[in-house]
Amino acid sequence: MSFPEPKPRGPVLPQKRLKTLDCGQGAVRAVRFNVDGNYCLTCGSDKTLKLWNPLRGTLLRTYSGHGYEVLDAAGSFDNSNLCSGGGDKAVVLWDVASGQVVRKFRGHAGKVNTVQFNEEATVILSGSIDSTIRCWDCRSRRPDPVQKLDEAKDGVSSVKVSDHEVLAGSVDGRVRRYDLRMGQLFSDYVGSECGQAVGQAGEAEAAKGAPAHLPIPPGPITCTCFSRDGQCTLVSSLDSTLRLLDKDTGELLGEYRGHKNQEYKLDCCLSERDTHVVSCSEDGKVFFWDLVEGVLALALQVGPGVVQSLAYHPTEPCLLTAMGGSIHCWREEAYETEGDTG
């Protein structure tokens, strides 16, 4: 006889504060997990980038080389390199082990808000207040970007990369999705009845395909991301609303409200199993909504200030939050550390 399959565990939310780390680098502008979630990066207003083991609370290395505050960072798929961008307009490629600068890419005319590697970590994509996304080849010595995406009419606040797509949010109120396989750009603005599909990436020059119909939220866009399954996009804007969209059809699948986001560029994401929408807030909390129902599941009190940044573990219910000069590590209530009994 065969035994029945065990019931899958229901989603649990990280609401137990395990660690608070004083990062010692001024204000923490961003916190980011590495690819497997074992380490994290913190970006400081004191020009440094730091690598941590957040569960143990140990600092592993400090990276110094920016000329102004560091605003974003990302790790490569094999954990061998980091990239970062900041207020000095530079994009920096780092060697993780040595802590040395491998390349420093210059070309942006304003501060760099966001950086991402492509999947193979051969290209860094950077989004800037100068309204451009620039693509830098990590392997060549050429000083100029291999591609410049300059469709945005205002600063680029967010860039995310999948295996063949680039998702970008801008202060101009548009979300742009570049399909690198098809050579298309899908771009839409709030209130528009239809978008536009413009040939953009790769060798394709001509527009192809039908226009996208995306109900994009009003006002400056602060953060965009893909769902873990790649089917949806999450968009936050300065009207204190997040919207979940079907990536291909543009259908509005859900709206999420209750948090405060009217002034700052704050992070949003989906939980590790795409069950909850998660957002920073200017009132000292992190908000969790049930993705399908749209109802608020948890308002996690972090502290008295603005929750500047967050990062969600790729496979586990583990959350990192940044407030002031500290980061906090959160796990589910049932989680036990090595020192706990049991």
Give an overview of the whole structure.
Pfam families: WD40. One of its GO terms (biological process) is mRNA splicing, via spliceosome. This protein has a domain at 34-190 and 218-270: Methylamine Dehydrogenase, Chain H, CATH 2.130.10.10. 0% of the residues lie in helices and 47% in strands. It has no helices and 29 strands. It has strands at residues 16-22, 28-33, 40-44, 48-53, 58-64, 70-75, 81-86, 91-95, 101-105, 112-117, 123-128, 133-137, 147-149, 156-161, 165-170, 174-179, 184-189, 196-199, 221-226, 232-237, 241-246, 252-257, 268-270, 276-280, 285-290, 296-301, 309-312, 318-323, 326-331. The strands form seven sheets. Strands 14-15-16-17-18 form a five-stranded antiparallel sheet, with no helix packed on it. Mean pLDDT is 88; it is low at 190-217.
Sum up the structure in keywords.
Methylamine Dehydrogenase, Chain H; 5-stranded antiparallel β-sheet; 342 residues; 0% helix; 4-stranded antiparallel β-sheet; mainly beta; globular
Give the strand order, joined by hyphens, for the main sheet. 14-15-16-17-18
Question: What's the overall average pLDDT, rounded?
Answer: 88
Q: What would you call the structural class? A: mainly beta
Oligomer: single chain
Largest sheet: 5 strands, antiparallel
Q: In the CATH hierarchy, what is the class of the domain at 34-190 and 218-270? A: Mainly Beta
What is the third-level CATH name, the topology of the domain at 34-190 and 218-270? Methylamine Dehydrogenase, Chain H
β-strand number: 29
Helix content: under 10%
**In CATH, what is the homologous superfamily of the domain at 34-190 and 218-270?**
YVTN repeat-like/Quinoprotein amine dehydrogenase
GO cellular component, one term: catalytic step 2 spliceosome
WD repeats: 21-62, 63-104, 105-137
Subcellular location: Cytoplasm
Organism: Myotis davidii
